[in-house]
Amino acid sequence: MPVYAVNVSVPLIDIDLETGPTGVWPGTHLWPEGQVPSPETVTQVPFLRGDCILMDYRTLHTGLPNRSTRVRPIVYMVYTRTWFFDEVNHAGRSSLDMPMEGYLALPETVRPLLLRAFSQTMRARHLSQP
User: Fold this and answer.
1) Distance between CA 32 and CA 128 in Å, rounded?
2) What is the CATH number of domain 1-84?
């Protein structure tokens, strides 16, 4: 399957091995489904404030433990194909808490900016109903 989502990570502080970088298993986006790597084979790379990490969404990755006393603020942006919704990591989460009336009250020029977040919220509400 071709790339359907890219995760962009930008740390707001320097992230070292104590602060806990994102661990990545390089090449996992090409592995057969169901193959599980050993935790010992994770690649840990410190990165500096303002660095930008682009990661294919199919790449197996994990947030490693923050063993420091500092907060670890990181900005995450995910760029996806229009049909993709992350039902695994964000199932049942509302990315925008706005009633339909509030969305419809927005100026028409603003609605396209929030359409994806609003659609995901509506999907989450629908999926969480019994």
Assistant:
1) 31
2) 2.60.120.620
Partnered with residue 79 across adjacent β-strands are 6
Q: Which residue has the tokens 């390089």?
A: 26
Query: How confident is the model over 24-82, as pLDDT tens digits?
Result: 998 888 888 788 888 888 999 899 999 999 999 888 888 899 999 999 999 988 888 88
Domain range list for the chain: 1-84, 92-130
Q: Are 62 and 9 in contact (CB under 8 A)?
A: no
Beta bridge partners of 24: 43, 61
Cα distances from 104 to residues 64, 79, 94, in angstroms, run: 41, 25, 18
CA 102 from chain centre, in angstroms, equals 26
